[in-house]
Structure to design on (1354 residues):
């Protein structure tokens, strides 16, 4: 392979990006479903012959899959001919697809006889069949419930459509026209990629184009290594939880240790929970550079240097350890439909781990957990059934050394205008706005949560809120900044019948019911007592911080009047050590600290070791049994490890059919 | 007979185009803009026109004007201090906007701060439902209290933007009337009056931008009118609009938001005129200035229109000539990072200090410096002698980059140009994929200060065969203003399912809109000539959350021809997206009417052509593909219609330099436009 001069490389990089973006625009323009056209839940890109993604569109489509490795899918097909287009949506075939609604396609591009690269991409189908509409529910427990699975195969064989597989697929889904329409758009997108690459080949020659594919990957690799080299070697541990590991369940622990050594790093997820009897599992196959645990890594690298090339080369300096049979590497047939909740939490953890290495260069914890709202109700005037996605419930970004977090949202998600919702769905929105005091206090405040309140009018109305979390445990503050507020979900707030719905994701409503739902707030950065008084007063004037909330900043205001004397006295003291910052400059929320008085790091590590010594199918069950026993054990708080050991030993007696592997031999 | 004058104030220069109605001669001029004293440059230019061309202001028979005064007040945050009244429960309409952050990979990415900060957004107890029925009428007490709050906050204007006011503006009107009684001098803007579209954020931000700029723009136009009158300019100025049209000065004071993006729009109108006259039906205009390149597609001289264009960082949702802005211009700065990666832009040296070779304090290498180093620039003046090119300075600032890239300076300069072109290739590729067309069917019309320098290179990269360099590439916006028609847009949200019962309501909505449009043209604009009415519907399949503007016929609406209207939508959907669903239910969300009244046009007749092959008497040494080659040097004014020549060549004129690389031939057509073609390419679209 010839090495390319850096200028030609930059020029071809533009051509590759043009190809990937033209693919994305073609898909966006010709797709049928709202998932593609409005939510932009799709990707497009180009990979090397062995599946390394070297070009992706930057400002279109889902932002998670930069550097997704197509090798597993590509290798599943023995031979490629011009005009082939391959397909899979199976989370357990090659670990390219990560849940059944995602339909991945890849097409070989030939220059003459030579296969030079693949055009690739995916769309999120609205439905792939299975147990529930849209194929996604936290409550599902095995992949078979999540829709029909197409193993890697040729959808188009040398230009001829494989109608039989198409018929089987379309027969098994709830909205076949939409799937078929989107599939055609995907094919058009791949062909656009092929055309643009062939233009580049005609202009620059095959050798130069091929050399440039590897060149842009090498460039990203060097750019990422430059960041690690500037970082202190060390182990940066970060633990977080999903409130419930299954509907109404116990917390799911996720643990990460980023080990930075020179210009490389290992992401060790050992200590994360066993795979779950719910759909929150993240199928990675244990691949060391699977994208799902590394989404946050891409964000960190890009945020530190927005000039990096966004491609698989960025991932080369890192390697993940993903224990088999864990929530981050489940074995078949664990359900994976809602892996996005887990993936989102891990994104935040990766940022959190790196923020310990560079507390001045990364933000505090992001908001989240609000969920995506859908409603199904009837129009009482016309009798017409209305189903619609109402809004994502979002929260802000974390405060940072630079500035306050963005209020109200921190991602690519868009909302639906209230006027459109009310014109189309017979609900009345009573309010949509920011939640005062929801951002963690800090020198730079965390971004506020958004909240929506709405009323339903007809019987049998159902509201679903996918990806709800952060009701129990909030996100963290950094460098003395405070955690953000937790999520809220109330039925009929302020009435006698007020009901807290917590992390409930399916709510059946009666006529007249009012639902109020909010995301969590983001964490603050830095000691709130050092926030300039003028900024605190401005927040109060803006209604983003209440007079009561100003106390967290050491600022005393009553009925609009600043009490300068008390404020000065308060602010002269050290910052509000709610609980004393945890190691690494983190401030954790009180609920988490209370929970960890029993479920300490040592306790979890111990439990984890015990569970992973068990056969996969026993782990989740035994975890719940141990949790039940420990919560009934009055002595647990004084020595949680002993309590776990007691519970575990007694469970082994109750279930003699389980044979744990000898400790030490555990993988 | 007299002189028709078009003036466009841009960021760096103010451009003048003077058309002599007797001789059909076109004269042009540029003076430096005066953001510190807007309007002063207009008067300075008139003085200069009188001095240079002996044309008295008294001889001016028609005057059009575009200004950046409104845009600047948004970018600099110097607009009016507003309070925004919203429906109770929806105080954060501007804070939340549409949620999405601009760069989702960047943990530090931010939406722009709300145009009206939260402490000046006041909730009012009122509610209208989606059917336009009042559920809660704002009380006098509530209005008085909100007004008191606004006055305490020091409001210089109030914007009223209530939920569903697009379908029933009664509450906005009621509150406005009440404020007029209580505080008669306070300007009040109703969102339903500014632009009555459905979608609360879009309507609210549009109204707020209007409220923010209107006082200043109105004041500016008033002063300009007085100054022009004082100079003896008899006709009242016509103001150019973002929709590619013009309006009277009085309308400009009232509808200030409509002029915000008029500079780029007028440039596209000018480009469309030039291209069509030269016989090109499909054209991509490429306007490259100091900091950005603006790209638009034209078919038969008509641009696309779009809403949601940005004013600074804020979108406005009035129909605007669709222009894609690329962050690459003559002033884009080149740099080499520690890994030896060359970058061009997005940072720009702008007009101050400008490229290093301008010798006005610029210290960093720009695209313009690269062209100076290559020998393309430097033989002629730029900006009518306002700037001279210092090649030595260009070489000096390129030297460190050359060291970083381990190449010589000339190769570095070529690399900068190549990379800039590759970046434009990328952006233009996106644009064509968005509309689902291929660039090869288009000609490229290059203008702006740096367009002619880069036009052929971009055309080659994107696969276009012909490049048009207009006679006056530096002042096309000023020319576009002179050519623009009186034009205005009207919209009414109807939200109708396409059923037989809906046809009556649609017809009534159309009658209302058409009457409003005619009243604007013949009433407020005093136009007595004929009017062209264009009708369209914002239509969609039920359940889609975006609409497609579908051209409609008045006859269909009058006859209640539901089938024709629906068929037009299916056809448009298929045209844009490649598919349609004849079985799906169709909705019409809004009805639009555009009225245009033809303004008198300068007659720019075809000139006599004598085909003559010309050879340059002077030669320049230009570095191209690593070699020094001899390029012919032509003065544009010395190239009469019909003359043709072969590249490599450099064509210089007052306000721009055209680079004709080897492999291109040039020809001046009957309208004095320079047509450059890649050799061996068919003369396909010439008439």
């Amino acid at each position: 392979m010839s090495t390319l001069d850096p200028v030609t490389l930059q020029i071809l990089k533009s051509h590759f990006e043009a190809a990937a973006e033209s693919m994305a625009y073609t898909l966006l323009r010709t797709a049928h479903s709202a998932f593609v056209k409005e939510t932009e839940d799709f990707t497009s890109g180009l990979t090397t012959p062995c599946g390394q993604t070297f070009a992706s569109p930057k400002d279109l489509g889902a932002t998670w899959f930069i550097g997704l490795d197509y090798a597993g899918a590509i290798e599943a097909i023995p031979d490629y001919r011009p005009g082939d287009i391959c397909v899979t949506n199976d989370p357990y075939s090659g670990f390219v697809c990560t849940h059944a609604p995602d339909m991945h396609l890849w097409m070989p591009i030939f220059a003459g006889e030579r296969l030079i690269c693949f055009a690739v991409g995916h769309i999120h189908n609205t439905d792939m069949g299975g147990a529930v509409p849209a194929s996604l529910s936290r409550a599902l427990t095995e992949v078979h419930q999540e829709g029909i699975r197409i193993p890697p195969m040729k959808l188009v064989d040398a230009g001829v459509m494989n109608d039989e597989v198409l018929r089987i697929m379309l027969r098994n889904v709830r909205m076949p026209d939409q799937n078929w329409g989107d599939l055609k758009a995907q094919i058009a997108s791949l062909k656009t990629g092929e055309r643009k690459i062939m233009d580049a080949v005609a202009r620059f020659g095959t050798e130069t184009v091929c050399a440039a594919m590897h060149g842009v990957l090498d460039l990203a690799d060097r750019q990422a290594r430059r960041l690690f080299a500037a970082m202190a070697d060390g182990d940066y541990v970060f633990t977080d939880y999903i409130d419930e590991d299954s509907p109404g369940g116990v917390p799911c622990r996720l643990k990460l240790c980023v080990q930075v050594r020179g210009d490389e790093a290992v992401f060790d997820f050992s200590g994360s929970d066993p795979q779950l009897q719910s759909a929150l599992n993240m199928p990675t196959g244990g691949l060391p550079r699977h994208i799902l645990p590394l989404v946050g890594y891409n964000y960190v690298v890009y945020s530190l240097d927005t000039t990096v090339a966004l491609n698989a080369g960025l991932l080369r300096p890192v390697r993940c350890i993903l224990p088999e049979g864990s929530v981050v590497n489940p074995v078949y047939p664990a359900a994976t439909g809602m892996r996005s909740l887990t993936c989102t939490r891990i994104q935040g953890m990766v940022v959190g781990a790196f923020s310990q290495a560079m507390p001045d260069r990364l933000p505090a914890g992001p908001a989240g957990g609000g969920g995506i709202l859908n409603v199904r109700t009837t129009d009482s005037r016309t009798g017409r059934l209305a189903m619609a996605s109402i809004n994502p419930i979002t929260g802000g970004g974390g405060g940072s050394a630079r500035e306050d977090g963005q209020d109200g949202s921190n991602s690519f998600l868009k909302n639906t205008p209230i006027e459109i919702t009310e014109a189309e769905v017979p609900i009345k929105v009573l309010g949509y706005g920011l939640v005062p005091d929801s951002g963690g206090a800090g020198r730079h405040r965390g971004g506020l949560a958004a909240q929506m309140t709405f009323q339903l009018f007809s019987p049998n109305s159902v509201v679903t809120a996918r990806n709800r979390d952060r009701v129990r445990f909030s996100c963290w503050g950094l460098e003395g900044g405070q955690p953000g507020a937790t999520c809220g979900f109330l039925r009929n707030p302020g009435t006698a019948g007020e009901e807290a719905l917590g992390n409930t994701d399916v709510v059946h409503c009666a006529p007249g019911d009012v639902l109020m739902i909010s995301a969590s707030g983001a964490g603050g950065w830095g000691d709130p007592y050092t926030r300039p008084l003028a900024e605190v007063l401005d927040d109060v004037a803006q209604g983003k911080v209440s007079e009561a909330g100003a106390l967290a900043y050491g600022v005393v205001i009553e009925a609009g009047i600043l009490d300068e004397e008390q404020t000065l006295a308060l602010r002269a003291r050290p910052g509000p050590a709610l609980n004393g910052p945890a190691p690494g400059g983190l401030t954790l929320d009180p609920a988490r600290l209370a929970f960890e008085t029993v479920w300490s790091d040592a306790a979890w590590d111990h439990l984890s070791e015990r569970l992973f010594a068990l056969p996969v199918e026993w782990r989740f069950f035994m975890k719940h049994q141990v949790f039940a026993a420990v919560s009934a054990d009055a002595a647990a708080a004084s020595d949680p490890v002993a309590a776990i050991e007691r519970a575990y030993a007694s469970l082994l007696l109750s279930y003699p059919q389980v044979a744990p592997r000898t400790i030490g031999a555990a993988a | 007979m007299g002189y028709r004058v078009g003036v466009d104030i841009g960021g760096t220069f103010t451009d003048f185009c003077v058309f002599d109605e007797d001789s059909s001669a076109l004269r042009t001029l540029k003076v430096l803009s005066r953001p510190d004293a807007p309007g002063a440059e207009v008067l300075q230019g008139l003085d200069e026109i009188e001095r240079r061309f002996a044309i008295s202001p008294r001889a001016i028979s028609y005057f059009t004007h575009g200004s950046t005064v409104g845009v600047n007040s948004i970018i600099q945050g110097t607009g009016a201090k507003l309070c925004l009244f919203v429906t109770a429960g929806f105080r954060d309409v501007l804070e939340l906007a549409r949620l999405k952050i601009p760069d989702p990979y960047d943990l530090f990415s931010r939406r722009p701060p709300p145009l009206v900060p939260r402490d000046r957004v006041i909730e009012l107890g009122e509610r209208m439902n989606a059917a336009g029925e009042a559920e809660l009428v704002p009380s006098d007490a509530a209005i008085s209290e909100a007004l008191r709050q606004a006055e305490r906050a020091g409001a210089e204007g109030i914007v009223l933007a209530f939920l569903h006011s697009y379908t029933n503006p009664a509450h906005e009107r009621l509150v406005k009337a009440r404020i007029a009684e209580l505080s008669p001098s306070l300007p009040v803007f109703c969102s339903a009056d500014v632009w009555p579209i459905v979608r609360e954020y879009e309507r609210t931000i549009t109204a707020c931008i209007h409220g923010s700029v209107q006082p200043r723009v109105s004041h500016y136009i008033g002063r300009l009118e007085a100054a022009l009158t004082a100079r003896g300019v008899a006709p009242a100025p016509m103001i150019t609009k973002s929709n590619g049209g013009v309006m009277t000065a009085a309308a400009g004071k009232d509808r200030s938001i409509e002029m915000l993006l008029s500079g780029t729009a007028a440039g596209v109108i000018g480009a469309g005129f030039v291209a069509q006259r030269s016989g090109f039906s499909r054209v991509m205009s490429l306007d490259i200035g100091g900091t950005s390149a603006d790209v638009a597609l034209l078919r038969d001289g008509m641009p696309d229109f779009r809403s949601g264009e940005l004013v600074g960082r804020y979108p406005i949702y009035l129909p605007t000539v669709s222009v894609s802005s690329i962050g690459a211009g003559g002033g884009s700065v080149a740099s080499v990072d520690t890994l030896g990666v060359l970058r061009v832009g997005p940072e720009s040296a702008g007009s101050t200090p400008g490229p290093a070779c301008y010798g006005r304090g610029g210290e960093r290498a720009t695209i313009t410096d690269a062209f100076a180093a290559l020998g393309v620039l430097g033989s002629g003046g730029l900006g009518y002698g306002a700037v001279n090119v210092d090649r030595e300075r260009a070489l000096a600032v390129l030297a460190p980059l050359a060291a970083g890239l381990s190449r010589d300076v000339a190769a570095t300069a070529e690399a900068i140009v190549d990379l800039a072109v590759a970046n434009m290739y990328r952006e233009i590729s996106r644009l064509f994929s968005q509309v689902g067309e291929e660039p090869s069917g288009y000609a490229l019309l290059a203008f702006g200060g740096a367009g002619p320098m880069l036009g052929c290179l971009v055309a080659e990269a994107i696969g276009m065969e012909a490049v048009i360099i207009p006679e006056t590439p530096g002042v096309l916006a000023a020319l576009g203003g002179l050519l623009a028609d009186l034009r205005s847009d009207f919209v009414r949200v109807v939200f109708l399912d396409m059923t037989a019962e809906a046809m009556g309501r649609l017809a009534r909505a159309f009658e209302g809109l058409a009457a409003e449009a005619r009243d604007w043209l013949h009433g407020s604009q005093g136009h007595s000539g004929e009017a062209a009415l264009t009708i369209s519907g914002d239509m969609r399949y039920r359940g889609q959350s975006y609409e497609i503007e579908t051209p409609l016929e008045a006859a269909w609406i009058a006859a209640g021809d539901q089938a024709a209207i629906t068929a037009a939508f299916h056809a448009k959907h298929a045209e844009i997206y490649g598919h349609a669903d004849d079985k799906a239910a169709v909705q019409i969300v809004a009805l639009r009417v555009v009225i245009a009244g033809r303004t008198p046009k300068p007659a720019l007749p075809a000139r006599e052509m004598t085909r003559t092959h010309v050879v340059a008497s002077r030669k320049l040494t230009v570095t191209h593909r690593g070699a020094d080659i001899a390029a012919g040097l032509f003065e544009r004014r010395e190239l009469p219609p019909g003359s043709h020549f072969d590249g490599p060549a450099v064509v210089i004129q007052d306000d721009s330099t055209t680079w004709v690389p080897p492999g291109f031939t040039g020809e001046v057509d009957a309208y004095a436009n320079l047509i450059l073609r890649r050799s061996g390419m068919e003369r396909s679209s010439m008439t």
Chain A is about 30% helix and 20% strand. The CA atoms of residues 40 and 382 of chain A lie 32 Å apart.
